[in-house]
């Protein structure tokens, strides 16, 4: 080979090494939602931002639609380092980190702005530290999951008195059963997939969920009255396995954290758009929407639940701090 040819080969090799990502990492992430869901789109965007800002040294692949198992399994996988990141619903973590249950209490948030200010502020930071210490996962941002409201088959709900005697589907959870009973209704735990038929056949009189679930599951076809009780607004978390996090450089940690917050802002925007679209669709289909503007009578009935689930002094203090957030 001529000297000129050798120089060209060496130059090409140096260029290839210089342009290739060093120590490329392939990350696997868990997500329960379908690919076009707001959370899924935000997670994909997070991965794009991280890849761009690390020159593809960190490539994040999210497995949507619970491809890697259900959430309880995914929590254990992440704690063991078998998966690298995830978007988790907060409720299943309550038994592991009891302090997080405060965020699931009914009527704890005045509105979605109050929720955002809480989780994006000192209270959210404190809970994130507890999750890291006890579960071996690092919280990088918080996602919306929507305010849940009541919907019924035969009549609108305007006040708590209208709940008397109704059979309302709930999740299999002591807190949710106690919530419905406190309102004077009969709690009926059922798998989510059975709700449509149960409403259609009259096995239950109503259920509760957010606008997108009410619309996408077509519950509006068999329960035509939706009341904006907004009794629950539980956030979700975006987490990274601590073992993986600890091996990152400070610069890469900042890239991931900043990108996660940008993804969170996107998710909240997409969620708000999805809520509006779902509401508009069911209203156009003839659903009767009852706006609940005064939630004080509803919240007043929750005192026994707060005593039962947040009665310890430390939990009461956390409730007071959340309520004081402006």
TrEMBL record:
Keyword terms of this UniProt record: Signal
Source taxon at top rank: Bacteria
Gene Ontology CC entries for this record: outer membrane-bounded periplasmic space
Protein name listed in UniProt: TRAP transporter substrate-binding protein
The organism of origin for this protein: Elioraea tepida
GO molecular function: carbohydrate binding
GO biological process, one term: transmembrane transport
Lineage, broadest ranks: Bacteria, Pseudomonadati, Pseudomonadota, Alphaproteobacteria, Acetobacterales
Matching Pfam families: DctP (PF03480)
């Amino acid at each position: 080979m001529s000297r000129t040819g050798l120089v060209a080969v060496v130059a090409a090799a140096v260029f290839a090494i210089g342009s290739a990502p060093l120590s490329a990492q392939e990350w696997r992430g868990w997500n329960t939602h379908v690919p076009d869901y707001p959370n899924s789109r935000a997670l994909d965007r997070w991965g794009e931002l991280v890849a761009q800002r690390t020159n593809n040294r960190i490539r994040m692949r999210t497995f949507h639609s619970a491809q890697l198992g259900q959430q309880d399994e995914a929590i254990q996988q992440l704690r063991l380092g078998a998966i690298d990141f995830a978007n988790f619903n907060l409720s299943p973590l309550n038994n592991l980190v009891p302090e997080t249950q405060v965020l699931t209490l009914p009527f704890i948030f005045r509105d979605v702005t109050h929720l955002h200010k809480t989780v994006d502020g000192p209270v959210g930071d404190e809970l994130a530290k507890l999750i890291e210490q006890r579960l071996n996962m690092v919280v990088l941002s918080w996602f919306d999951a929507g305010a849940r409201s009541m919907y019924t088959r035969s009549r609108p709900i305007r006040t708590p008195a209208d709940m008397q005697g109704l059979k309302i589907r709930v999740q299999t959870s002591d807190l949710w059963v106690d919530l419905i009973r406190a309102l004077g209704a009969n709690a009926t735990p059922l798998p989510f997939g059975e709700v449509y038929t149960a409403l259609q056949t009259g096995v239950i009189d109503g259920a509760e969920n957010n606008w997108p679930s009410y619309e996408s599951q077509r519950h509006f076809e068999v329960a035509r009255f939706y009341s904006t009780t907004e009794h629950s607004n539980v956030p979700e978390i975006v987490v990274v396995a601590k073992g993986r996090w600890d091996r990152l450089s400070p610069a890469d940690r900042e890239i991931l954290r900043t990108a996660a917050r940008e993804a969170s802002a996107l998710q909240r925007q997409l969620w708000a758009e999805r809520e509006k679209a779902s509401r508009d669709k069911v209203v156009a289909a003839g659903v009767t929407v009852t706006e609940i503007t005064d939630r004080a009578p509803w919240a007043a009935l929750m005192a026994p639940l707060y005593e039962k689930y947040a009665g310890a002094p430390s939990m009461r203090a956390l409730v007071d701090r959340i309520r004081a957030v402006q």
